[in-house]
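User: Design a sequence. Structure:
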């Protein structure tokens, strides 16, 4: 089974989804205080259609929750994923 990890790289304003140590997806962001604005989420073309975008968004939401941050999901994929996930509604700014 593949091992997934979501990491944050604040120096380049990016969350990354790693599968067995290889980046297969990312989400760019900007910050406004304790709010993270996510305009773009992308999965590598070779890995699309397998739910990895959802793993990435769930992982970045876990990071935000742990910090007490909120999110503005400008990206339509991220916005729809959050709307469809009742457990994440409280993170919307």
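Assistant: Done.
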């Amino acid at each position: 089974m593949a091992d997934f990890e979501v990491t944050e790289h604040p120096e380049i304003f990016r969350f990354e989804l790693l599968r067995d140590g290889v980046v297969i997806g990312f989400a760019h962001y900007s910050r406004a205080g304790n709010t993270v604005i996510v305009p773009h989420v992308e999965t590598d073309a070779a890995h699309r259609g397998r739910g990895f975008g959802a793993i990435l968004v769930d992982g970045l939401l876990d990071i935000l929750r742990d910090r007490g941050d909120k999110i503005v999901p400008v990206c339509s994929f991220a916005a729809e994923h959050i709307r469809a996930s009742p457990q994440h509604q409280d993170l919307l700014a």
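The domain at 30-93 is CATH 3.40.630.30 (Aminopeptidase). The chain has a mean pLDDT of 95.
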